[in-house]
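Task: sequence design from structure.
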């Protein structure tokens, strides 16, 4: 019918998508980051590096 639906952007600080940004998200991100998992590419530039860590920390301390 030509209709499209856009979803609200997710909160980057809520890494595990449980609805809250808390210390578990921090630990889950670190686990993914050090395991070099695709989810750790927070800025979606195709590389998992220190910029992803800094971008996640910025989002985490800003909150949702």
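Answer:
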């Amino acid at each position: 019918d030509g209709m499209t639906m856009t979803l609200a952007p997710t909160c980057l600080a809520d890494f595990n998508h449980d609805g809250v940004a808390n210390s578990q998200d921090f630990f889950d991100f670190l686990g993914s980051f050090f395991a070099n998992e695709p989810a750790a590419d927070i800025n979606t530039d195709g590389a998992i590096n220190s910029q992803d860590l800094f971008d996640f920390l910025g989002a985490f301390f800003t909150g949702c």
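The chain has a mean pLDDT of 90.
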